[in-house]
Amino acid sequence: MASVYNWQLGRGMSYPHQEAHSQLQFAFVFNINRCIACQTCTMACKSTWTFAKGQEYMWWNNVESKPYGGYPHNWDVKLLAMLEAENPDGQVWRTKRKTPESPYGEFKGKTIFEAASNHRSEGGSMRALGYVPPDEEWRSPNIHEETAAGKIREKDQWGDSVELPEHRVWFFYLQRLCNHCTYPACLAACPRNAIYKRPEDGIVLIDQERCRGYRKCVEACPYKKPMYNSTTRISEKCIACYPRIEGKDGVLSPDSAPLETRCMAACVGKIRLQGLVKKTADGKWAKDPDNPINFLVRERNVALPLYPQFGTEPNGYYIPPRWVPRSYLVQMFGPGVGDALDQYCCPDRELLSVLQLFRTTQQIIFKFRIEKGRKVAEVESTLPSGKSAVQEIFNDTVIGYNKSGREVTRITVEEPTFERSKNHVNSI
To answer: How far is it, in rounded angstroms, from Cα 180 to Cα 316?
Structure first.
């Protein structure tokens, strides 16, 4: 077992594989507040990568409704219960002491790697706590879609009406794909060393020449994103559209600059922002505040990892939904939820500008710059924490640059208004 430092946990942890870090890391931010569950991202991925025999049930990208939805069914609830059984009442955070290297405090519980030491599966000892979902749990990718939780009026009955302004019923959409983790459980669990992390961009791939379909990756991944192909009898997973990351689309990227993945580029709700962040030799995120992903994740901590307590250090980050009970969000995204929501509900000048960059270009933005504009509004608001705040809104212009340093997007905070000419051709 290697001893590694997991900044999301705020401490060192045991990892059952040799530590290695990439020069850049594939990462993404999803703004849950904007998602409309149109599934355009899901179908963009499906039509590109998983339309062959044996892939019928594979949804490398999926959007599920929480708290009841999940694909495979109950993937997170089952693993959380397994961790609690291995460490009763011990899966807790200590948040009094926060530093730049431990922005959420310290997780005092056990990760899936640490909880696996005393656990035995049917196949023997495990490198990561997990399970192989049975076939029936893969059958309905949209199970419980738009199914809400909460009490309605004074009765706990489904289907009753709700009276405003006391809206106690809630649900939200969770967008998921492979997190291309810094410490992948799938990689650590593979007995064939068929899974590897690319040194140039941190994308996790399966060498299908080496894979023998043992499904240890399916068992170990806490997010259940490696999937077994019963036709080829090997495992497959999201490949982060690496030809696009490599800039091999000469039409959309004439200067060979990296492009966003298909699921990111197709997003209708503009909830997705993908990037490549710089890493140091020891695996830390390099100081790069002008990179939008780095800015949202490390500078402002407004985008949070999904189930950081699992210990894989996922590279998928989420701006939490505003209307969901706080305890549920803390369980899912860690103790940084309160600060993230306060910032998002009343963004300052710089954060508001960066939030405009979501889905403005298919090219990956490596750097942004803000041109200051005039003040257009001043809004008083009450933050989710209960504090009062005044938001000043400026019509700034944010500019995004690709890997080559070329400008690829320019957008203002105040949406421009276009007035159609009175003289126009009647299309009827």
So the answer is: 8
Residues 131, 78 contacting (CB under 8 angstroms)? yes
Per DSSP, the residues of 197-217 read E-TTT--EEE-TTT-----HH
The residue written with tokens 């983790």 in the block is 181
Please tell me the distance from the alpha carbon of residue 305 to that of residue 334, in angstroms, as a whole number. Answer: 8
* Residues 31 and 322 sit within 8 Å (Cβ to Cβ): no
Q: Assign domain 2-345 to a CATH class.
A: alpha beta
Cβ atoms 47, 281 nearer than 8 A: no
State residue 379 phi and psi, 5-degree precision.
Answer: -125, 130
Assign 428 a pLDDT band (cuts: 50, 70, 90). low
**346 phi and psi angles, rounded to 5 deg:** -140, 70
The Cα 371–Cα 365 span in angstroms is 17
Mean pLDDT check: name the lowest of 1-10, 244-253, 335-344: 244-253
Alpha-carbon span 1 to 250, nearest angstrom: 44
- What pTM was computed for the model? 0.93
Residues in the chain, total: 428
- Specify which residues 370 forms β-bridges with: 398
CA distance 366 to 356: 15
Q: How far is CA 384 from CA 95, 313, 340, 343, 389, in A?
A: 19, 27, 10, 10, 11
Q: What is the mean pLDDT of residues 194-202?
A: 97
- The structural domains of the chain, with segments of one domain joined by +, span 2-345, 352-412
59, 390, 387: which is closest to 223 by C-alpha?
59
